[in-house]
Amino acid sequence: MPDISDLTLEEKAALTSGLDFWRLKAIERLGVPSIMVTDGPHGLRKQAGESDHLGINASVPATCFPPAVGLGSSWDPALAARVGEAIGREAAIEDVAVVLGPGVNIKRSVLCGRNFEYFSEDPIHAATMGSGVVRGIQSQGVGTSLKHFAANNQETDRMRVSSDVDPRPLREIYLRAFQGVVEDTQPWTVMCAYNRVNGVYASEDPFLLTEVLRDEWGFDGLVISDWGASNVRVDGVRAGMDLEMPSSGGITDRQLVDAVRAGELDEADLDRAAERVLTLIRRANERAAADGALDVDAHHALAREAAGRSIVLLKNEGGILPLAPTQKVAVIGEFAEKPRYQGGGSSHINPTRVDVPLERIRAVAGDVAYAPGYVLPEAPEGIGMSAVKAPKPEPSVVERLRAEAVEAAKGADVALVFVGLPDEDESEGFDREHIDLPAEHLALVDAVAAANPNVVVVLSNGGVVALPFADRVPAIVETWLLGQAGGSGVADVLYGSVNPSGRLAESFPYRLEDTPAFTSAPGENQHVRYGEGIYVGYRWYDARRMDVAFPFGHGLSYTTFSYGDVAATATGDGIEITVDVTNTGQVAGREVVQAYVSVPGSAVERAPRELKAFESVEIEPGQTVAVTLTACARDLRYWETRADRWILEPGDYVVEVGSSSRDLHGSATVAIAGDELVIPLTRDSSVGDAFAHPVAGPIARAEIASGPFGAVMMSGDELSPMGRDMPLNRVVSFGVDAGVVERILAAGA
Ligand code: BGC
After folding, report:
1. What distance in Å separates the CA atoms of residue 233 and residue 250, rounded to the nearest whole number?
2. Start and end of every Fibronectin type III-like domain (predicted)?
C-alpha cells in the first residue's frame, strides 16, 4: 500500500468518494485495489452484477438472520456475535470488505419505520447487542459500519430534519449506544446519519465526527457517509467525514481539489481522510481469501436457533403453550403461509431459503387445518419497499375468509392465529402513522376468540403494536421479524422444543398517545424536538407511573425461576452484582437476569431506574446458577452540563435485579465514592451553589446565616427554596454585604 505522499492531489480527492454504488476507487498505478462495501445488517445484501443507481437490483442469496428487533430480543450478545461471525464469513466468501451495520439508533418513537433495524429503546442494551455483532463480523477479517451516527430516530424527512436534542439525552441516551460499541469493539467504520443534529448535518459536524467520536472515544477507523448524506463536501472533509458514498460522479472530488488549490481547505484535512481510506483498504486486504463455499445448511441452522431465541412469549395463561403434537390445532392467518420475516429497504436480504410456519407446524403435528383468514397485500418487488398501498379486498371476500377461519377454529383444541403488519405498513423510508394492527386482523382475532377461547395469537411485526385483544386471549407470542428460518423458530417455540427466552427490548404501550415522543415526533419545519429528554421508553412510563401493556424486559418461559438475595459491591470500576437464580420448573430454560440502577438522592434529574447490566443464562431444572453482573462506572455516569463532562455522582446507588423492568425480585444499596465535582462560582451562581461549594461553602454559611438574608431565607441551617435559588449578584439587594459576596466569589473561583 502506498504512502499518502505518493498520491497526487487528484488521487487523494478521488479516494474519498465511491466508484459506484458499492465500491471504492482503485489507484491502479500504485496497486491500490477497489474494495466493496454492502448492506447489512442482518445478512449480506451484495448486489449481483453491475450495481444500479438506487441499489435495488437483486442481490446474491445470503442467509437472512433475524433483524435487530428479533436478535435484540434475545438479550444475548454471545448469540449476536455468532450471527455476526456467520455474516462475516458470508461477506468474506463474497469478497466484501465491510458490512454496513449494525444500527444502534435508539427506538425513540414507536412509529419509526426503521425500528425493526434497531435493537432497543435502551442504550446499554443496544450497545451490548451491537458490540456482539461487531465482534462477530470483524472476527472474520471483515469490517463493520456502525450506523446511523447520530440521533437518526425517524424516517420522516430523514435527509433534512434536525434532531434537536439537549446535551444530557444526547449523551446519555442517543450517543451512549455508539460510545459503548466504539470503545469496546472499534468498528472499522462508522456511518454518519442523513439528518442534522441540533441544526448541523451529521455529515459535516466536527463536534460529532471529531470531538466526540475520535477525541473522546478514541475511534481510529473511517467515517463513511450514509448513501447520499453528504451535504457540503468540503465542510464534511474538514469535519472528519472521510468517505462519501455512493459515487458523486467526480463532482465533489473536483470540489475538494479546487478548495485545496484555493486555500479554502487545508490539504492536511484531505490527506487525513484519504489516509483513512487507504488504511481501510489495507485492512480489508489483510484478510486471506475465504476457503470453501458457504455452508448454507449450517447458517440456516444458526438462523433457526437465533429465530427461536428472538421470540418473546408475552402471555401464556393456563400454560396453553407449549402445544402437544397430538392436540388438534387450527392454523389461521395468511402470515402462517406467507411469513413476513424481514423489513423493507436497504437491509432486505435475498434469502437462501425460507421456512414457512404452516409447513413447519405440519412437520410436527401432522396435517393441521389451515384457513388464511385475511388477504395479505402482495409483497413488494425488489427490496420490499412499497410505494403504494395495495387495494383492499372486497368486503365479501373478507367476510368469507373470516367465516372459514371461525369454522376451522371451532373444530380445534387450539386456534393459532397469525396476525401482524404487512410490508406496506412499515419500512425504511417512512414512519408509521399509528400502531394499530390491520382492522381485518383485529376482527379475525375477535371472531376466532368468540368461537374458541383457546386462542394463541402469533404476531409478526417490526415495531410495537397495540394489542386490544390482550385480555381476551390466553396466549400471545411476539415473533417480530425472524429471518429466513423464522417458520421453524416459531414451530420450535409453539411445540416446546425451544423454551422461549426472548425479552422485550422495547415497551409495549397501550396507546400511541401514551408514548414519550407522541407530541413531538416527527416534528415540523425540519425540526424534531426531543422534548421528553432522558425519559425515553421505560424511563418515561416509569417516571409517569403509567401502566403499559407489556413492560421493557418482559418475556415468559415454559419454566419458572426464583431469585436469591441480591448483593452489590463497589469495585472501583463500577458495581459488581451477584444473585443466585434457580430454575424451579420442570424444563431447562434461559433467564435474562436484568440489573436496574437508581440514585435516589441524586442532585440531577434521573429516571426511576435504568438498565445497567444483564445476562442470559441457561439453567437446568432444579439447578441454581450464581449470576454475576457488572455495571461499569462508565455506564453509571451522567452527563454534567455545567462542566461538560461525565460525572460518577457520589452517593448511594440502588441496584434492583429482576426478570423485567417491572418484575423486580430484590435489591441492594451500595455507596459509590464517585467523582468530585466543583463548579467554579460566578456572579450567576446561586446561594445554594455557594453553600454547596467545598471551599466557599463554609464562608457563605458563616457570613450569610448570621445576617438579615439568613434571618428571612433560612430556617436553622436550611436555606428556603427562594433563598437557595437567589443569584449571588442579587443578594446585595436583600441585605447581604457586597464584600461578603466578593469573599465568597474569591473562595469559589
Ligand atoms: C441506508 C443505510 C444503508 C445505505 C446503503 C441508506 O439508505 O440508510 O442504512 O446502509 O442506504 O444501502
Report:
1. 12
2. 591-661
